[in-house]
Amino acid sequence: MNETIDINSKQLWERAKSIYLSTLQSDDEKSQVERYFSMITSVTRKANVFVILTSNAYAADFLKIQYASKFKSCLNLAGGENDLDIEFKFDETARPAIVMPEIQQINVSRNETRAERISTFSSTMPLNEEYTFDEFVRGPSNSWALAAAQGVVANPGKSGYNPLFIHGGTGLGKTHLMQAIGNELHKKNPHLAICYLTAETFLNEYVNALKNTQAESFRNRYRNIDLLMVDDVQFLQKGKQFQEEFFNTFNALQQAHKQIVMTSDVAPKNLPLIEERLISRFEGGMVQEIESPNYETRLAILKKKSEGMTPQIPDNALEYIADNIKSHVRAMEGALRKVSIFRSMDPATHLSNEILSRLLNDFIEKEKNFKKLTIEEIQSAVAKKYSVDIGQILSMERTQSLVTPRQLAMYIARKFTTKGLPEIAELFKKTHSTVIHGVKSIEKRLDVEEELKASLEEVLSELGCKLSDKIY
Ligand code: ADP
Ligand code: MG
């Protein structure tokens, strides 16, 4: 099929990208990949090689290792020739989203060139300019977190707000709020050194630095930042050695009155694999939770997000979405986009509830199944029911009063979440076979022990689920 050769390279790349995204299962995976895509500054084609430039040196390596072969097959699927190749390079000319040349001059060594200094800050991931306080709708579910974020902007580095730790379920606006802090502080003072990155990127970058024996330059790089924002710190649980490094960076920044902001899907105390001393640092400033928005807030968010959409989305459609999609704002936005596309294709049709329910069926079905339990939540609900500590659940102690809650928590983790065995084993600090054994043992006991079954139901209801929510 020679028709393929005529597709211009930009189109080919875009197609390959959509094909790749469509192969990803979870929203989390998609948003991670999109974050890396957002660091691509340009894609050019030289003969049969796609040269992909990134704004961040680390991203070039990561994309190469992680995605080169996948992209290659997607390019083929998109209609590209079989012998296409891909190269990833750091775009030396790309100005990082936010850099701070002047003020830091005092701290940088005299011989450092501008390019070197810029690379100091090239780790920051770009901030989404739309994530501002103006675009953030305030409601009872988020007003405390919003006020705290605004407090940071008013007084960055001030002790009561440092660090600011925002936690809450996925898609509830943590990243938006965090980046709003970055955007606003940058507007107020363009000379501030601002660094935003996900804990996962941070960790990977550290591992890379160690591999290339550049730990020292990694360390220095993060000591010169005025505002460090680390998104999704639950990922730090994966790197024991990095926690030590992070602890030191954290202390150095805090002592220098630099601001630190973090987000996580759970409260600091529910991060069992993070060292105690780090947790107490996390709790040492201000901890705020974002909860699921109520109906009024959902509707207000939808109104805000639909401003400027043409043709306009009628109120009844916004109300329908607010009524039916409750779990997270990201899903509401997806539903809104779908309605908007439908509307632009067919502006005359009245959007009746029947049409909306058909149109948004996917979202509504997903909503029904949406119960994203974390292992930490499960452990803490079980610990509470049995009046033991999470630490005891994670310990090796084998008294029956600990074995039952431990195994029950494993059972819920295995049967009521989509988490894999390796992750469960890691978060319970046990081997795979111990987890499998624990799950089997509870399964057998549930058949005959009414009391255990009642305890299970009680814990599930504490977690907001029922026996019938069992996935496996
Ligand atoms: P999280 O980081 O908690 O998973 P995000 O910050 O990525 O969630 O938010 C998901 C989407 O929902 C973003 O597009 C964000 O703009 C939007 N959003 C969440 N809460 C609000 C809010 N209160 N007002 C406006 N938009 C919101
Ligand atoms: Mg986020």
Give an account of the 3D structure:
The chain has 472 residues and is α/β, with parallel strands linked by helices. It folds into four domains: 7-93, DnaA, N-terminal domain (GMP Synthetase, Chain A, domain 3), CATH 3.30.300; 97-101 and 115-290, P-loop containing nucleotide triphosphate hydrolases (Rossmann fold); 295-370, Helicase, Ruva Protein, domain 3 (Orthogonal Bundle); 373-469, Chromosomal Replication Initiator Protein Dnaa, Chain: A (Orthogonal Bundle). The chain is built from 22 helices and eight strands. The strands form two sheets. The chain has a five-stranded parallel β-sheet, with helices on both faces. Helix 3 links the parallel strand 2 (49-54) and strand 3 (85-90). Helix 12 crosses helix 14 (329-345) and helix 19 crosses helix 21. The longest helix is centred in the N-terminal third of the chain and has 21 residues, at 57-77. The protein is globular and about 65 Å long. The model is unreliable at 1-6 and 96-122 (pLDDT under 50). The chain binds adenosine-5'-diphosphate (ADP) and magnesium ion (MG). Adenosine-5'-diphosphate binds next to helix 7, helix 12 and helix 14.
